[in-house]
Model the fold of this input.
Amino acid sequence: MLIKKLTLRCRDKGFSAYHTIPIGKLAITQNIDFLEDFKQNYNNMAKEDIEKLKEKVEKDPLSKLFVPLAEEYRKAGMVDEAISVLLKGLENQPNYMTARVALGKIYLEKNMLKEARDEFKKVISAIPDNLFALKKVAEISAELGE
Done:
C-alpha cells in the first residue's frame, strides 16, 4: 500500500520549516503537533519582534519604525494596538504617507470604510498620482454608494 505524503512548507521572515508527514491515523496527530509547535514558535518570534520594535519606538518617538511595529501588531491579530500605534506616530509625523496608507488598510480590514477613505484621501492630497490610494477611494465610495 502506498503511503501518501504531505510536505508542509512554512516560511515567514526568513524562517523555513519543512516536515514530511505520512497521511493516516498517526499522521493527523503528527500534523497537528507539528503545526501547533510551528504556531507557538511563530508567535514567540512575533512577540520578540514586537518587543524589539516597541523599545526602539519608545526610545525615539520620532522614528518611522512605528509603521513596522503596527504591521507586526496587525499580523499578530492585535489590530486595535496597530491603529493606536499608527495614530500616535502620525501625531508626530502627519505627512508620513506610508503610515497613512497602512492605517487606511487596517481600517479596511476592520470595515471602517469612512475612516479608510479619509486616510486614502489624505494620501491623494499629498501624492495625487498614488494609484493605490486612488483605487481604494473609488472602491470605498462605490461600496458606500457615493
In short: Confidence is low (pLDDT under 50) at residues 1-23, 25-30. The chain is about 70% helix and 10% strand. Strands lie at 5-12, 15-22. The radius of gyration is 20 Å.
